[in-house]
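Hey, resending since the last one bounced:
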Amino acid sequence: MARRATAVYAALAAADALLAATGRDRPRRLTKPLLMPVLMAGRDREVQRALALGGVGDVALLGRSETAFTAGLASFLAGHLAWIAALRQRPGGGYLRAHPALAVPPVAAFGAMNAYLWKRTGKDRIPVAVYSAVLLAMSLTALDSGSPRTAAGGTLFLASDTLLALEKFGGLRLPAHEGLVMATYATSQALLAG
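The structure tokens again:
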């Protein structure tokens, strides 16, 4: 069942990323909220919890208000904590302790991004710093798993949220920016779900 759901998810994620890239927000009110529920099929309870929190964040971020952003941030923060718990229950682990140098790139990226955004985040400075610390912890937990697939999922989530933060606070707007955010995000969730 999880394989079939993953295939449906891949098609839905590709459609949503294309819609996002072309600025077609109206049909995304259908595609984006379906992503995480489809991916949840056949997964264990801990993974479903993390994906469900991502789904709540997805729906919140369909709004453009500050309240919607705050709700999305809170949902994804809880989702990252749920991913940490889920990933720690999987067999393996300890890979990062055996290869600590692998933590240098994500930790350096975290430090550089927070230094760059510090003056730009205004009243959201502390929540963004806390969120990014939990995101880093999730990414490091994924890396610690020793699974290349899971590590790639954690890294892509970090990349997706970095693109989102650079747009919201840094004024960076790449061509098809929202499509890039969704493509990296959707791929990260699928890789983490396993």
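Residues 54 and 176 are 22 Å apart (CA to CA).

Sorry for the duplicate.
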